[in-house]
Amino acid sequence: MTLVKHDVVVRQLTDYAELLATQRLYESIWRSDSTPPVTAELLRAMTKAGSYVAGAFDGDALVGACIGFCSPPAAGALHSHIAGVAAGMRGRNVGYALKLDQRTWALERGMTEVTWTFDPLVRRNAYFNLGKLGADATEYLPDFYGHMDDDINGGGETDRLLISWRIASPEVASACSGQPRTASATGVVGLGISEDGLPVPGVCSGSTVLVAVPADIETLRATNPAAAQEWRYAVREVLGGLLADGAAITGFDRSGWYVVERSGS
């Protein structure tokens, strides 16, 4: 299957040279001093097993890639393990084109759900997942991958939110046709942000609780690791605590707030 979307071409990758190019692309994005996020050999095995391995091309240049593997048959789900876009292509909807292709691929195989994880501190990814794709964040996973020493994770703890993307739902279909889910930052502040960019604990009472995240956690990790760690623990305590108590994230406001609805309040 080949998808032409947002000025890039997305297609499945099978040629070893393209799989090696995917490894190199991921290396350039994560810039890990140890092992790469994936290897061409692993990708070769995944393609042979029928997994999802797709690349986005701008002309002849590979500018993005996404890989996933299937859950047990009864689950009817695909787990999207890793996706990345070349730095120079940000803002051109390459990631969106990859997810649209992934949704089509999964629907054609009778699947109903795609799952993946993302760092809850990364504001642009929170909006992309919850707003632009219309997906749901269902579980908070503390230090899910352990410490990862690369340019993106900065060697810190790897808390993640688990995403459930119900690909056949009307809400997701609407988001994938260009009508993102919207959220309004109205409610009590469970975690705010100070004028100097640090987390400020609030109160988690009322039916709707707002949880802030920093404007640019990746820059903060490089310039002020202590502040980045403070955000990690604050969001873990407040957002993770709310989800553990049965609350649900209903959206993400683009100004930087998770909107959380508490059950039974």
TrEMBL record:
| Superkingdom, taxonomy of origin | Bacteria
InterPro entries attached to this UniProt entry: Acyl_CoA_acyltransferase, GNAT_N_AcTrfase_prd
The protein, known as: GNAT superfamily acetyltransferase
